[in-house]
Write a structure and sequence with these properties.
single chain, 272 residues, alpha/beta, eight-stranded parallel barrel, 9 helices, 14% strand, Sugar phosphate isomerase/epimerase, Xyl_isomerase-like_sf, isomerase activity
């Protein structure tokens, strides 16, 4: 099974496309994960440049976070997922629903995503993320009774924060969720937040070990299922995800450097 590792555009949004793509190539990533512009010309400029560079694309949809009203959220989700699928990416990673929508409302959104995925023959996977329908294990699990094959992106750093733990007391939750994971956001969270300052620091070792164990299990499950490819995106984010010093607001670490270091760790760990 091939392991493909993508560079997050998040945190690099200020860079022109050619500069960011050169940065991605120099680091050795296999592709880019990004939210595509709704403007067709701008979307095609990005996708054309990415393809010309020999890189793959994962299209991300997170902008529905701005819509708390359900009808606006649903309309935005449809537009954004359609736009993402038109780019013919490897997959679409979506921030779906809200933790305060009713189960019936969130189910409407899951059905909408499934219909758009089928229409375009593009996989759409739902990211585990705070404030979404999946923001806590006990929010997600009831949906799995209705959608037992719901495709997920594992960003388990969010559950560490939401559950104030490294999930060591929830093996039954992980046993239900990990087989559904189709994409991983490789960021290391901890019991008090979604991102450690530096995953290589000795104080981060318990959190790193927990995440590596989850990722190892996901890779093993996908290999056992005969999957041809598994995708990862190292996703250490800019401030305020990266902690800052008080008063000066200087970041305590470099998110891009963390992501490149995680790329190297994943390459070494899953080579072959």
């Amino acid at each position: 099974m091939r392991i493909d590792i993508f560079a997050a555009h998040w945190g690099n949004n200020d860079l022109p496309p050619d500069v960011f793509i050169d940065k991605v190539l120099a680091a050795g990533f296999d592709g880019i994960e990004m939210s595509l512009p709704l403007d067709v010309a701008l979307r095609e400029e990005w996708t054309g440049r990415i393809a010309k560079a020999g890189l793959q694309l994962i299209a991300a949809q997170w902008e529905t976070v701005f819509h708390s009203d359900f009808d606006l959220h649903r309309a935005a989700l449809a537009e954004l997922l359609e736009n993402a699928c038109l780019a013919r990416p490897v997959l679409v990673n979506t921030h779906t629903g809200k933790d305060f929508y009713t189960p019936a409302q969130n189910a409407q959104l899951l059905d909408l995503a499934a219909a758009i995925s089928e229409k375009h023959s593009v996989p759409i996977v739902h990211e585990i993320h705070r404030s979404r329908f999946s923001g806590h294990p006990m929010l997600l699990l009831p949906y799995l009774q209705q959608y037992p094959e719901l495709p997920l992106t594992a960003d388990l750093s969010h559950w560490c924060c939401a559950c104030e733990s490294l999930l060591e007391d929830q093996p039954q939750t992980l046993a239900q969720v990990l087989p559904l994971v189709r994409h991983v956001h490789a960021r290391v969270g901890h019991a008090q937040g979604p991102q450690v300052a530096d995953f290589r620091a000795p104080e981060a070792k318990p959190a790193l070990d927990a995440h590596l164990a989850w990722w190892d299990a996901i890779v093993a499950l996908r290999r056992a299922a005969g999957a041809e490819r598994m995708t990862f995106t190292p996703e250490f984010g800019p401030a305020p995800y990266t902690q800052t010093l008080p008063w000066t607001q200087q970041p305590v670490s470099d998110a891009w450097e963390q992501n490149v270091a995680m790329l190297d760790l994943l390459r070494t760990r899953y080579a072959g």
